[in-house]
Structure formats: structure tokens, C-alpha cells
């Protein structure tokens, strides 16, 4: 199988760097082919702007949506974007690895998503009408592929527990797992999270690698998070709100997973 690891940490000798090296070796030893997009090492351009298209400037104002579509459709995207899209199409599984920074991904990784997820590639895919609002949330360009987050967090696991002050980790990761991964079609596996990173010592690191190794070994048969599919009949279209008999009386992120019915 082909695995793309998108890695966002500036320091190779960090905990994240060690986990990345462990993961590559574990996957390759199991016979998989791994490509790594090491965003800091690549000096990845994080900001989306007019330079993302090689089209001749016409003097029109820059429109991030329209210009993304034109560049994608006309083969005029900048080379770095095109290469990352090719890696995504090549991959059977994609891992996004990052330290939790201000309750989300580092800016360089957010910029990777903004630029690589072009109009026509990751959004604006499929028919958009009052009866079919695009191929998204379980359908789309990346359907059939698996994705998983590998995250390190300074906070304790209890800080992210059901009543923890930071809010549940599943809620914090929802915009990434549901909005960024499920949206263009990925089956999203439960995340691998390491908490309380300032207390990592060789013994805890060994335990973390043991658990991570098992997660990587079972990348192909771990059941994905049962996010509901937009076009499977559970949502009104085009309102895109859950039908009344699904999770009746409930709201919030958890209603979009079927195990919470
Ligand atoms: C801007 C910013 C925002 C942040 N926001 C949040 C937030 O919102 N929520 C939150 O919970 N945290 C937050 N943090 C903390 C952040 O999540 C952690 O600093 C990060 O996850 C640690 O990962 P690292 O790879 O940088 O670890 P490192 O600092 O490199 O290492 C952590 C520990 O692991 C040890 N270690 C590293 N490699 C090994 C190895 N091979 N074997 C054994 N031990 C090893 C190190 O000695 C160190 O003690 C934030 C940090 C920053 C800088």
C-alpha cells in the first residue's frame, strides 16, 4: 500500500521527528511504500494567493475560489500544489502529523490544506443542484482512501476529557477530521494522540511507539469513525441538515456520527 505522511514540525530532533522516523520504518518494514511531505524542510509556501496560478495576470481582482478553479481546470496550478495533489491521488492512506498548536494544526499545515485542496479537486466536485449538493462528506476525489491524524499535545488527557476545560479532543479535531478529511471523501480513522508531551521520557516514548506501531499495523482494517455520508439519505438536501428522525432532539458535532443514534 502507498502511504503519504504529511509532517508539520520545524525540528527534526523533536518528539514529532522521532515519531515520524518510527512510523516510516514501521510502515516500510511491513512492505508499504511511504512518501513524506516534510513541510518545513520543503519550505512549503503557507499562504494562498495569486501566485498559486501560473496564468497570466489579467488585471482582474484576485478571487481565491474562482482563480483556484481556473488554475486547476486549465492545468495552471503552481508546481508545488500539483505535486501534492499527485501524492494524494497516489496514496491509499494519508497521515497528517503535527503538534497541537493553539487547538489546531500549525499554520504551515493549514496552508498546505488551503492550497492543495483546490476547487475542482477537493471541493466543488460533482453535481450541485437542489437534489444533489456535490460529492462531499464521504464522496469525492479522495473517496476510498483512509486518513488518520497523528497529534501530540502538551495538555493532559483529562484536560481533553468529557468534562475537561479544553473541551473534548474529538470536538477539537472535528473540523479537521470531518471538515478537512471526510469532506473530500476520506474514511477517517480514530486519531492517534499523545498527551502531556513535556513528561515524555524513554519509558513513555517506548509505550507510545508500541501503541502507534499497532495503529500503523492495523491502518487497513481499523474501523473508521462512522461519520454520516451527505448523500446517503440522512440529510435534507439542499438544506443539508439532519432529518428529524436521525438523532432526534440532539445537536452538535456528535450527531454527525452514526454510532451516537
Ligand atoms: C505555539 C504553540 C501552541 C501550543 N498550543 C497547544 C494547545 O493548544 N494545546 C496543547 O495541549 N498544547 C499546546 N502546545 C504544546 C504542544 O502541543 C507541544 O509542545 C508539542 O505537542 C510537543 O511536541 P514536540 O514534537 O514539539 O515535542 P518536544 O518538545 O520535541 O519533546 C517533548 C518531550 O519528549 C521528549 N522526547 C523527544 N523525543 C524523544 C525520544 N526519541 N525519546 C524519548 N523522549 C523524547 C523530549 O525530551 C521532551 O521532553 C503548544 C505549543 C506551541 C509552541
TrEMBL record:
Give a yes or no for keyword Oxidoreductase in this entry: yes
User: Its domain of life?
Assistant: Bacteria
Gene3D superfamilies, A to Z: 3.40.50.360
Q: Name one Pfam family in it.
A: Flavodoxin_2
Task: Tell me if Magnesium is a UniProt keyword of this record.
Answer: no
Q: Report domain Flavodoxin-like fold positions.
A: 1-206
Question: What SUPFAM superfamilies is this protein classified in?
Answer: Flavoproteins (SSF52218)
Which keywords label this protein?
A: Oxidoreductase
Write out the GO cellular component annotations.
Answer: cytosol
| One GO MF term attached to the UniProt entry | NAD(P)H dehydrogenase (quinone) activity
Supply the InterPro entries for this chain.
Answer: Flavodoxin_fold, Flavoprotein-like_sf, NAD(P)H_dehydrogenase_qn
Please report which protein family the annotation says this sequence is part of: Belongs to the NAD(P)H dehydrogenase (quinone) family.
Per its record, how is this protein called by name?
A: Glutathione-regulated potassium-efflux system ancillary protein kefF
Which organism encodes this protein? Serratia plymuthica
